[in-house]
Amino acid sequence: MTAQQPLPTVAPDRTPTLRVLAVGDSSPLLRELARHTEAMGGVLEVAPDSAGALRVLARERWTLLLVLLEEDAEDRLGWWVEVLRRMSGRPRLAALVPTPSIGLSLRASQLGVMDVLAAPLDRERFTDLLRRVRAAERETTFPLPEVKPQPLGGGRIVAESPAMLPVFRAIAQVAPSPVSVLILGDSGTGKELVAQAIHRQGPRSTQPFVAVNCAAIPENLLESELFGHEKGSFTGAVARKIGRFERATRGTLFLDEIGDMSLALQGKILRAIQEREVERVGGSEPIPVDVRMIAATNRDLKRLIAEGRFREDLYYRLAVVTIALPRLADRGDDLMVLTAHFLQEFGKQYAKSFTGITDQALELLLRHDWVGNVRELRNVIERSVLVADGDALRAEYLPEEWRTGGDVAVEPEPRSLATLRDVEARHIARVLAHTQGQIGEAARILGVHRNTLARKVREYGL
Amino acid sequence: MNRGTGLPPLRVEQALRLLPDVDALGPLRAFLLSTSQGGEDVAPYRTVGKRYLQPTDLRALVPRATAQVGAHLTALYQAAVDALEAEQRDDPAGAVRALLTAGELEERVRRGTQARAWYDHALRIAEGLRDRRPEVTALRRLGHLEAGRDAVEAAARLYQRSLAVAEGEMDHEGAARACQGLGAVALAQGKWQGAESWFRRGLQSGAEDRVLIGRLHLGLGDAARGRGQLAAAADRLALARELFEESGHGTGIVHVLNVSAQLDVLRERRAEALATFREALARLQALGEEPRLELAIRLNICQLYFDWGRLPDAEDEIRAAEETAIVHGATRDLARLYMLMGKVRGRQRDDTGFVFFAMAVELCRGPEPAPRLEAEAYLEYGLFRKELNDPDEARAYMERAHEILDGAGNGPLLARIDAELAQLPGG
User: Fold this and answer.
1) What is the ipTM of this complex?
2) Does the residue A186 lie in any domain?
3) Could you count the other beta carbons within 10 Å of the beta carbon of residue A306?
4) Which of B115, B123, B138, B352 is deepest in the core (most CB within 10 A)?
5) Is the CB of B319 less than 8 angstroms away from the CB of A235?
């Protein structure tokens, strides 16, 4: 991602005061905690019990509530989560437990508890917790930009970047005519949205728009998907099926990922376009079809033609007009606008409302390499909305590996030197995030055998 | 693109089309699948057939594949020679044990038909012995195999024979184990009351093995969960856990956590359920490889996310589980995962999601057919079509599911299919 967007200005000195409220009555331990907090430039006060803590919490603003739990740790932690949920300006929650079980730690993390520390206290872990609390507190929230879908894009394409202007211009030009269009662009750039926009602004807009992802459908089913089949014509043909060509009659047929089709099927599609009729698999009657064709691919069709893997005659039939879509990385401010759009969309879906984004969240988004383009952004925002709590998109809701994997230094304080094992685990996590969990691909990038990587993934609990 | 040859990789579906379905190529087909990689181009709709492989990479792995095949054959031959030596020593029970070991070896590498041949052979010899305990074991192994192959009716018959012989021989352990198998088969069919009766009978058989007793309590807990008796289920699970803990039986504890989490789901304590499932996975990791159990837990997590409406999390979890299923050749679990992925797409009203049901059906028809699962896949396919307002196609798929089950059995699933069919317009 090129950092074209002007980053919001950040006030030079706004280090928040770290105010920790500890709940418990273990004096030596509390004294130790207070000492470490002061060393970090913060203050720690003590409430001996829950009732006292609730009174202090209602009166003053705190950055961290640290509860010391001994018996029924799980239930009491759940109780604190519930209590804080209803509190405005609520602090973050952490717990100190004599011997936290795996189960308790997992439950705590599910409940959004920042950390469960073990007693006796590990000073490094405690100061690390304070650093994380401070880093989260330091985020400044900015309002989200207003989202206006482009009327030129049929009202569904969200874009303000000049890089999208040629796309809108092309849509406006080709939509009224019946010509075939070939849309080029990387995965996730929104090829289907553009095809829909062309359809909606054209004379066939009241007729069906039928999309087929040719690469997604198993090869042995693609022909029957496109042309239909008669009952019993092959194993699995449990009923007569109307193909996509027929379903799109008088409307638009959008063939996505056209470059993935076998040569034999390419020939059948060419025949269908030329003769304006199809035959169902297992059928004997030709069926007339009248469709506008829009195709799309992320592959270099001319190269495939040169390699003999794509029919040139079909290419010229489909590519009467071509429209090339820019990558998200080349769309400048659209990242922010699309983020706001998806926050609204998923906010509605999951009954949450977002009005802002923090500077650190924005920086993480800007620094990320959006290989999966808008689709990847959409997925990231949907996942963030699911875990978000509050009305702003914060750095902590974005993928953890972005914060720990070195994409951006959210936490500027020097950390203790990591072990080789930690570094390896983090790097593996980062590569796995890049490959969206694909072990094989990650193993290729890391230059190790997949079984070695699978073992390490298990070992590190990734 | 392959750096050495400059050629693009092949899709798995292309590769499999080229390999004839002959026994000798079975291990190569499995290797081909487990070493394939998922590309990014069809990420939202990627099924195993759309993964990629490089023939050159596969060639490099051929020595490892043949070494594995060699090791497997060596172990089989050794078991066979063990059987011969036992016969020579006039130890027919030892011969039966050796033959059963060979069957277990085949079962471990998911060669069900071959395992069945070894077990059948062992059973025939065992039937001629005066001591009938080897027969009890052979019948139980066969029952376990058939249950794993989705043939629940056959499994139940074999376990019943095992139980009858064990009771006749006063073999308390054998009887309890047969009851446990019968209970598990009933659980798989959703026959909760029947399952409960079998597990209770197992407990009454007088077996003393603490782990076995723990398993029977675990089964009772699971059956009580199925019947919605949550307090009773929790009590049984606590008992089972205690027994597993005192015996140091880690896998048993993981099983208990898996069922406990399902209890939390029924109590609508989803965050707690999720944490318990994760704890189960973490414990399992420490125990080493148990892919079947891992996949069972992961499938439960996927279902939990799906029911919770957390579709992106469900999808992530399905993809993680898919990788495990592919690496371990767990075809049936893979089919289940694709059914769930199809349901996710259905919820998103994404028509192309049908590819997952189509793949699930195809997986169920492989060299080890799973008719009950195939029927389930057709049912879910029908529900997907129903959700996308295509009642005609929905009916066709559900009718196909009915047709398959008519031959394969399973009352509760058949009843569900009929109920869904009745709800369709014109039903």
Assistant:
1) 0.78
2) yes
3) 11
4) B138
5) no
